[in-house]
Specification:
The complex is a heterodimer of chains A (about 200) and B (about 550). Chain A is mostly helical. Helices cover about 70% and strands about 5% of the residues of chain A. Chain A has 6 helices and 1 strand. In chain A, helix 1 packs parallel to helix 6, helix 3 runs antiparallel to helix 4 and helix 5 runs antiparallel to helix 6. With about 550 residues, chain B is an all-alpha fold. Helices cover about 65% and strands about 0% of the residues of chain B. Chain B contains 15 helices and 1 strand, in the order βααααααααααααααα. Classes of the chains: A mainly alpha (about 200), B mainly alpha (about 550). At the A-B interface, strand 1, helix 1 and helix 5 of A face strand 1, helix 5, helix 6, helix 7 and helix 15 of B. Strand 1 of chain A pairs antiparallel with strand 1 of chain B, so a sheet runs across the interface.
């Protein structure tokens, strides 16, 4: 090889800090997930009132108030957990983090109960009509994201209980909490579209 | 300004003698952006040859009227696989490979932000492609109906419903692209993060090479428009397997909704493919005109404008579906609007060449070919944007001519330019200029001979995707010219492959900077070491190597 390489070096090195990778990576993930959800939301809005046969939303849908309270308050608990870790309270972190997971599980359980009732009592499946098709797809995609979030959160909880989560990890934990907040915001949209506009 | 000359690490001399299994193992397990970039581009070239052969069979079938060399069913599979392959398995991997290889080098980084995610994206793409091609074997499913997908590359509903597409061929189309699409999204997220977080000291956004700017906009576009395709494909899968009703017109579903969802992805996808071509031209034209790019800020602004407007023009693919007058007007206007930033770019490239000392090396020849042919593509594009004109010529060979002028005359020519320009950096060897010129001229002649006559056969009323035509409609001559052009293109591609192979074996050593260029990748060795730069570079202008070579008149005094 004729291998001398020249690297340009400037005279005056100045201050040079760029954003951390984890945060920017999470922002790109949230951006692309938003695009994904917006298509399912558009499909839901487009097909409101276009089902040719019942059951219709107004007959079978009930407002999932309790589930919504659970999920939205989990955004609060995860913030408390992450702030605790930032201050070095690992015990408090584990407590709030575990509570977040419980609230998420409660939300999923509420969805499961709702679906059970819809399928076995009201006879609404994904193949029944356009309402069933769009409802199970949109709500299901959101529930899928909650599930993925819960798996990730549980992983952190296990690591934390084993004593591997330290104050130094506050940044990473915060990045993960952004995903959880995103899932919450999506629920606000889904709730509005499915249970308010669509009913 | 101090200049540091450093001896970079020699490539391991033992590498050539490693056992084949070890070499393969190294490539399969690599997370190095350069190796992944090479693998992306090489697999893209393999798929290019396959899809080119599919096109060749179609041109052979259309040479004579009333020809029956292949059946209509086979013809449907061929144009579906040709289009799908060229867009998803040739265009996408090659532009992602370019981004992979060049973006970290150009911003003075040692790798992408998430190297393992990068490898994950590549393998998703490759296995997605293999899944699509497995349909030739497995598409029969349990029904014994259909093999490869035959629904066209945009897979319009209700053709894709269970009733009309039996067997599993459509499922392979869905799953192959779904998997590959997730890979593209992963890589796009990676590139955006890399550009935001890993630029070398001094490289502010306003000092980034235009190549990096444009690939960043492309990556953001991928993040925003790939998910709609994924979502639509998930809906289609639910329709086909779970009995969902999204596109089931008998249950009140809408076939037009699929068209909207597909083209919300499909049209920005054209810009996803085309902007990297612009990006390469924006690096190559200045170097071979020996001038700094004309209107750098306007180029950046035009790129972002194309990204924005490009997301609001999709329904110009659907003028004939019967939209409201309001929609037709909106999408006509939006489509015409996008010609403005694109025109700005063409004038800026011309302005760069104007008064320059132009070196007509092969990369530059391909760029000039790109400028002329892309202009034709842009002009027919504006014609087709006018909805009443489109009502006449939609789904005719005129449209086929238009988008092949975009994607071959525009994109493929710049991809060839890219390969001729950066091959010395990637391999340390020069491609032969003499053979390269044969490649250029044969390909330019073959391409224009194939696709220019399609404008005329289209205006004469020949619809696209027909497997044969009757004699006496005045289409014979134009089809025969098109088919003859293919021979030239095949010859050119063979010459190109031969050029690569012979350059790899005994090409002239390239040195670090064979073109006397200005961006950071030329400051390291050819090929670059695994860590790219021994010392992370520091830049003060858009052309760091110019500053280095001309300390008496550095760029940063003028920017």
């Amino acid at each position: 090889m004729n291998a001398t390489a020249a690297t340009p070096i400037a005279a005056e090195p100045t201050e040079w800090t760029l954003l951390p990778r984890g945060r920017v990576g999470m922002v790109t993930l949230i951006l692309t997930e938003s695009a994904l959800f917006s298509i399912f939301v558009v499909a839901y809005l487009f097909y409101i009132g276009k089902s040719l046969n019942g059951p219709y939303p107004k007959d079978v849908l009930e407002l999932p108030i309790l589930a919504t309270i659970c999920l939205l308050s989990s955004s609060l608990t995860i913030t408390l957990a992450e702030r605790g870790l930032r201050r070095g309270h690992v015990g408090g972190f584990s407590l709030w983090w575990g509570l977040t997971i419980l609230l998420g599980v409660a939300f999923l359980a509420s969805t499961a109960i709702e679906w059970y009732r819809l399928i076995y009592q009201d006879g609404l499946t994904i193949a029944t009509n356009l309402f069933g098709t769009t409802f199970y797809t949109l709500v299901g995609f959101h529930a899928g994201h909650v599930t993925v979030g819960l798996i990730l959160l549980s992983l952190v909880l296990v690591l934390s209980l084993l004593g591997h989560v330290k104050q130094a990890h506050a940044e990473r934990v915060e990045v993960l909490s952004w995903y959880w907040h995103f899932v919450d915001v999506v629920w606000v949209v889904v709730f509005t579209v499915v249970y308010i506009i669509g009913r | 300004m101090t200049v540091l000359d450093q001896t970079m690490a020699q490539p391991r001399p033992a590498e050539a003698r490693l056992p084949l299994l070890l070499v393969l193992h190294e490539w399969v397990t690599t997370v190095d952006h350069k190796r992944l970039g090479i693998m992306y581009i090489c697999s893209g070239i393999v798929f290019f040859v396959i899809a080119g052969l599919e096109a060749t069979i179609m041109r052979w079938q259309l040479f004579f009227p009333n020809n029956d060399a292949i059946s209509p069913q086979v013809f449907n599979r061929l144009f579906t696989m040709h289009g799908t392959t060229m867009v998803f398995l040739v265009g996408m991997p090659i532009i992602i490979g370019m981004a992979n290889y060049l973006v970290p080098l150009m911003i003075g980084a040692r790798d992408l932000a998430f190297p393992r995610l990068n490898a994950f994206g590549f393998w998703l793409f490759l296995f997605g492609g293999l899944l699509l091609y497995f349909s030739f074997l497995g598409g029969d499913g349990l029904y014994g109906a259909g093999t490869a997908p035959d629904v066209g590359w945009f897979a319009y509903s209700p053709l894709t419903g269970r009733a009309f597409s039996r067997g599993n061929s459509t499922d392979y189309w869905i799953l192959g692209l779904l998997v590959g699409g997730i890979g593209s999204i992963a890589t796009a997220a990676n590139i955006v993060t890399t550009v935001v977080c890993m630029r070398c000291k001094g490289m502010t956004l306003g000092k980034m090479p235009l190549f990096v700017w444009m690939l960043t906009v492309v990556s953001v576009l991928i993040l925003l428009v790939m998910p709609p395709l994924t979502a639509a494909q998930v809906m289609l899968l639910f329709d086909r397997f779970l009995g969902a009703k999204f596109f089931d017109t008998q249950a009140g579903g809408s076939a037009v909704l699929w068209q909207h969802f597909f083209w919300i992805f499909g049209h920005p996808e054209v810009y996803v493919l085309m902007l990297p071509g612009f990006a390469a031209a924006s690096e190559i034209i200045p170097v071979f005109s020996r001038k700094v790019i004309f209107g750098y800020p306007m180029m950046v602004a035009a790129t972002i404008a194309i990204g924005f407007i490009g997301m609001g023009v999709w329904a110009h693919h659907m003028f004939t579906v019967g939209m409201s007058a309001m929609s037709n007007t909106f999408f006509t206007a939006a489509t015409m609007l996008i010609a403005v930033p694109t025109g700005i770019k063409i004038f800026n490239w011309l302005g760069t060449m104007w008064g320059g000392r132009i070196r007509f090396a092969t990369p530059m020849l391909f760029c000039i070919g790109f400028l002329l042919q892309f202009l034709v593509a842009g002009l027919t594009g504006i014609m087709l944007a006018v909805s009443p004109f489109d009502w006449q010529l939609s789904d005719s060979y005129f449209v086929v001519a238009h988008f092949h002028y975009v994607l071959i005359g525009g994109l493929l020519f710049t991809i060839f330019a890219t390969i001729y320009y950066w091959f010395p950096k990637v391999t340390g060897r020069m491609l032969s200029e003499r053979v390269g010129k044969w490649h250029f001229w044969l390909f330019a002649i073959g391409f224009n001979l194939t696709f220019a006559p399609m404008h005329i056969s289209g205006i004469l009323g020949m619809p696209r995707r027909i497997y044969t035509y009757e004699a006496g409609r005045g289409w014979e001559l134009w089809n025969q010219l098109s088919s003859i052009g293919v021979i030239f293109q095949i010859a050119a591609v063979l010459i190109f492959v031969w050029n690569i192979i012979s350059a790899l074996r005994h090409g002239e050593p390239a040195g670090d900077d064979p073109w006397d260029a200005w961006t950071l990748e030329w400051s390291t060795t050819s090929p670059p070491p695994e860590y790219n730069f021994e010392t992370p570079p520091v830049v003060r202008s858009r052309r760091p190597l110019w500053d280095l070579k001309h300390p008496e008149d550095p760029d940063w005094r003028h920017e």
